[in-house]
TrEMBL record, chains A, B:
<protein>
    <submittedName>
        <fullName>Polyprenyl synthetase family protein</fullName>
    </submittedName>
</protein>
<comment type="similarity">
    <text>Belongs to the FPP/GGPP synthase family.</text>
</comment>
<keyword id="KW-0808">Transferase</keyword>
<keyword id="KW-0460">Magnesium</keyword>
<dbReference type="Pfam" id="PF00348">
    <property type="entry name" value="polyprenyl_synt"/>
</dbReference>
<dbReference type="GO" id="GO:0008299">
    <property type="term" value="P:isoprenoid biosynthetic process"/>
</dbReference>
<dbReference type="InterPro" id="IPR033749">
    <property type="entry name" value="Polyprenyl_synt_CS"/>
</dbReference>
<dbReference type="GO" id="GO:0004659">
    <property type="term" value="F:prenyltransferase activity"/>
</dbReference>
<dbReference type="InterPro" id="IPR000092">
    <property type="entry name" value="Polyprenyl_synt"/>
</dbReference>
<dbReference type="GO" id="GO:0046872">
    <property type="term" value="F:metal ion binding"/>
</dbReference>
<dbReference type="InterPro" id="IPR008949">
    <property type="entry name" value="Isoprenoid_synthase_dom_sf"/>
</dbReference>
<keyword id="KW-0479">Metal-binding</keyword>
Length: 328, 328
């Protein structure tokens, strides 16, 4: 098997596992939304990280499909509840659960999804289950902390770079770290390798979010999936805006605040103006440097692990590098 | 130690455990609501059942305070989320979490509470943890199913007695069954006793809900904590109303439907009229008979278990009998 086939084959198996897993039947309003949100797709990057991470140490990653699926089910639970809180009408171009059904259904169906995530961890060896649940509990609580901080930042005037990086670490990066650690733990990797893979996941996770912030402003509209500039239009406190507010001087500061406070504006004009400011003030470069710093830290952590199965290492490296270089 | 001191002493220890457990600190909006809802009190009947059930087989119930607390934390998580769904302004006379903070805080803080419930199970022996989490997952999913059915019933014209009994079994009774089974399992009771205690809990749980339905209409207002007749005023589909709709004939059926459809009415008048109908049609007696049938089934299941520690058996019997005979 060549390196390039590993990921697609594992993704096929995972998809088949997810689409046939007996989440439950009655009442419909409780279980249909689980199947609905899982069918909306997504890159399944988190469970793939678990499978490849396990594959570094053992040759039978299909043995941990259930635990890998747990990570994806948990991720989709957070999306279902976050979408209620953010009042988001769409998720991956389709109606969100609280729109298609109602907010109560999205609350309760999400609750059951969290229970099902725990259920999916159960086929683990008894001597590892406690450690897995403990690591997962910590990650799950941290993801909730990150979401709460993100909501708090919306109504705060001032957010520091450090606070922002900590928020994205909690809200998105620790789950990538957990996904990788989970595979390593189940694959009986050394404690050191488990921690290295965790750290690798957290580092690239923070980098991926910084990349998201950059793409939202600077992506090529022809290649980008959604409207470029959405974060600028909504004054979202991304790394770019936080640094711009910190560093802008004189006229630049005035212009930036002018756009932030304007209630009626031409979206295209605002995006172009703020984008130019980001380049002029130098925060585009600062964000790129910070992102690359996290990627570089991450991949040096990855390099230090024991590479038992080279093809899985290659696949893991390629998959994560593709995300580092993505343009959408 | 005499039988009567066991429950109060265990409840003291449980309260102290709950009030000092490190649920988490930052952000405040995530963790303060957990401490807030737990401080509102309640009878702590579920964790007490776990402790007494364990005490039937082992003399050191303080060893499972964490797991007993898990049941109470889970129960309060369901209250926090149910209160959002029911738009309830008050819980035990105090503002509900979504009122005191906001619905997003109640969603996310509830999510973390569910994670913390799993965390509290972790100090269990490794060889029992999988079984505990599996039994808990099933119960947790069933409680959500019950809540969804309860919401569905609100907008349905017709609900059968069987559907209602199944809904209350899921929404409230299985958690009592699980609480008892948990204690027995951790106490190394036989599989048979674990199931008997589970069945006992489910049977009395259904009985307690039927008792709630009856008290809401027929309680002595001087002894009852809240306004008698609330279910009648809101047309709540309780056992009484479901059976009355099924059995009322001629004039009685007309009068009942008249009150159900009236949009403006004197509450006291409606309560008196529907209450009289319940007695006349005979559904008060039907509900009492059904309730007693569940209690009687329950206690005969309890009698069959092996009574290793008689004082704990006495305490368990007294506590549950007090609930059978409560007047508020």
């Amino acid at each position: 098997m060549t390196k390039n086939q590993l990921a697609p084959e594992l993704l096929d198996k995972l998809e088949s596992f997810l689409s046939t897993y007996p989440f439950g039947q009655k009442p419909d309003e409780l279980y249909d939304p689980i199947r609905y949100i899982l069918k909306l797709g997504g890159k399944r990057i988190r469970p793939l990280l678990s499978l490849l991470s396990y594959g570094l140490y053992q040759n039978d990653p299909e043995k941990i499909l259930s635990q890998a699926a747990a990570v994806e089910v948990f991720h989709n639970f957070t999306l279902m509840h976050d979408d209620i809180m953010d009042q988001a009408p769409l998720r991956r171009g389709k109606e969100t659960v609280h729109e298609k059904w109602n907010p109560n259904v999205a609350i309760l169906s999400g609750d059951v999804m969290l229970v099902k995530a725990y259920e999916l961890f159960l086929p683990s060896p008894a001597e590892q289950l406690g450690e897995i649940i403990q690591a997962f509990n910590q990650t799950a609580a941290e993801v909730c902390e990150g979401q709460q901080l993100d909501m708090n930042f919306e109504t705060r005037d001032h957010v520091t770079e450090g606070e922002y990086l900590e928020m994205i670490r909690l809200k998105t990066a620790v789950l990538l770290g957990f996904a990788l650690k989970l595979g390593a733990l189940l694959g009986n990797a050394s404690k050191e390798d488990q921690e290295r893979l965790y750290d690798f996941g957290v580092s690239i996770g923070v980098g991926f979010q910084l990349k998201d912030d950059l793409l939202d402003v600077f992506a090529d509209q022809a290649k980008f999936g959604k409207q470029v500039g959405g974060d600028i239009i909504s004054n979202k406190k991304t790394f770019l805006l936080i640094k711009a507010l910190e560093l802008a001087q004189g006229e630049d500061a005035k212009t930036l605040n002018h756009w932030l406070q304007m209630e009626e504006f031409d979206p295209h004009e605002k995006v172009q103006a703020v984008k130019s400011l980001y380049e002029k003030i130098g925060v585009k470069k600062l964000a790129e440097d910070k992102m690359n710093e996290f990627f570089s830290t991450g991949f040096s952590q990855l390099e230090e692990i024991q590479k038992v199965n080279e093809p899985y290492y290659q696949s893991l490296y390629e998959i994560t590098q593709a995300l580092v270089h993505r343009e959408k």
